[in-house]
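[Meeting: bench + compute handoff]

Bench side (C.D.) handed over the final construct sequence. Compute side (W.E.) agreed to return the predicted structure before the next meeting so the bench team could plan truncations. Sequence as handed over:
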Amino acid sequence: MMPIMTRRGDLIIQATVTIQEIDPPIWRSLLLPMNLNLAELHHVLQAAFGWDDAHLHEFIIGGLAYGAPELAREGFEDEQRMFEATEVHLRDFDFYHVPHPSFLYHYDFGDSWMHLLTFEKLVPNELAARYPACTAGARHRPPEDVGGPNGYADFLEAWIDPAHDEHKATRRWAGRAFHPEKFNQDATDRAVRAAARRAGDNYIFRRL
């Protein structure tokens, strides 16, 4: 399935997605079709930040959790019902009467990466182009399993300082491709479009 083709004049939503508790911020600007569902959005967000999709996730919207119910986390004191992500689309939200609505995307319940999605404005599709798309962003996402925001702060301290006892080990672990300020908009845009193509209208793992 190709990335969603919208007709000329169809509305798409512009959103900024920012990983919380990281300074300077790590963010992406996305153009999203209104008929995108939350399962597809999950894969788009994974691609936008370059995550490995190796951990559980959920969307937190109005105090409710949405995702893949068959993978819902178990054994947590705050366990709650997980609603099906494919049944909720961006068109279901009121972007007309609520200024700058937002919700959270929670990835990796151990490291607990909270992404704030802020929806900024509806714009017409003037080119009948394929969406979703990544139009801007800043900084590389943290390495997987680095230990959350606090662990990432410790990691950067060692990664930056050649005199740090863990500097060489940290550099080896992160790999040569990692740099905290690195962001390639063109490559990210291609990855986002490819993620939408692979997802279709459901989670990829459900077809494996």
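W.E. noted at the follow-up: The chain is about 25% helix and 25% strand. C.D. will use this when planning the next construct.
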